[in-house]
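Example record used in the benchmark description.
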Amino acid sequence: MVFRRSLWGTLLVLGLAACASTQPNQAVLTSPATPTTTTAGAVAQITYPAGGQEFVSRTEFEQYRDKLAQPGTAEETVLNEIVARHLLLHTAQAKDLVPDAAATDKAYTQVKTSICQNPQLQARFAPAVQTAVAADPNKLLDACAQSFGFASAQAMRSYLGEEQLTNQVITANAIGTDIHVAHILLMTPPSPTQNETAADKAKRDQEAARRKPEIDAIYQQVMANPSKFADIANAKTEDPSGKGKGGDLGFQSRGKLVPEFEQAMYQLKDGEISKPVRTAFGWHIIKRIGSRVSAQDAETYKQSLIDNGKKTGEVKFLITPAPPPTPAPQVTLPPADTGASVTATAEP
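Model output (structure tokens):
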């Protein structure tokens, strides 16, 4: 699942656009998220409610602006992206999250094969770097990483791991997060209605109590062999919409399901299975298959972090971002023999 621009995607854009180069005496970073502890040279200040402060260094800002952001990105957008990244990583640290190793390895492999092996990128290495790589191909990855402002290939890989952490935080908190979910349902009639009586509710409570041992037994069966969840769901579920489909309900978003089911669904991690959960419809065993967040929802969530931080004073920009570059004016060329006009962009 990719819902924010990952490093390898950014590098691909930059590499194929031939925007990366390694210049002599250019500063490199061990990690773009490394904060400075002083206001000297800082471009943004973050004060965390639970205590602690960090400052975004100008070095990090310039690396992101010049090496990682798409050409022409406004400085305010760059600052927003960096500060949001710091806030997300701070949340991940507070929750003791760890990067998804498999996803990090996959992204790193894509960088190595799709970016670092690109001749257009290698052609923009400084001459001394090209010579060193030609003499020792093992130096290619470090040279590739340094072309994007990292101290080494390992530092670039660490950045990818941090991307996984920020993705985890966004997935857990973005309003638009959709969950791919399956369940096993044992129904406890009567189904709830707007006009139900106390007697209806009491009857449903009795039915829930009667079926509790049954759902517990199914749960034990599932946990003894989690990979067979779909087979067990097909055999046991009483939900006609999931019967024959392994209990699969597809992707579900917030506000679409009853609160008890939704709460349990969002508390699970991808691949996890819940203990029996009771709703007004019956007993459920819920499996969270996966999750997704649209790029727009991810950006909305990150922007909300910045906006809220500015309102509370948690986030302060210490520089005035330069305005975005003015687009080149459009000019109309003289019509061709066909009588059609041609629009072109004037050279700056």
